[in-house]
């Protein structure tokens, strides 16, 4: 019985994605902070500096993407 529990635990850990949304990257979906950095921006929880502007969001809408 103990072996079955260990095998089930190992299977569950191996089949679960490491990060939320990791299974979606194969479908072409990317996290918003990845898209921000890829387009030359940076993520800030506070307001963007005066020389930059807001172009989107990061971390599921919790931060701003500034360029």
Describe the protein's architecture and organization.
- This protein is of the alpha+beta class and 67 residues long.
- The protein has a domain of 38 residues: Antimicrobial Peptide, Beta-defensin 2, Chain A (Roll).
- It has two helices and three strands.
- A three-stranded antiparallel sheet has the order 1-3-2, with helices on one face.
- The longest helix is centred in the first third of the chain and has 14 residues.
- It is rod-shaped and about 65 Å long.
- It starts with a helix and ends with a strand.
- 9% of the residues are buried.
- It comes from Octodon degus.
- One of its GO terms (molecular function) is CCR6 chemokine receptor binding.
- Belongs to the beta-defensin family.
- InterPro entries: Defensin_beta-like.
- This is Beta-defensin 1.
What are the defining features of this structure?
67 residues, alpha+beta, Antimicrobial Peptide, Beta-defensin 2, Chain A, 3-stranded antiparallel sheet, 3 strands, 18% strand, rod-shaped, signal, antibiotic, defensin, Defensin_beta-like, secreted
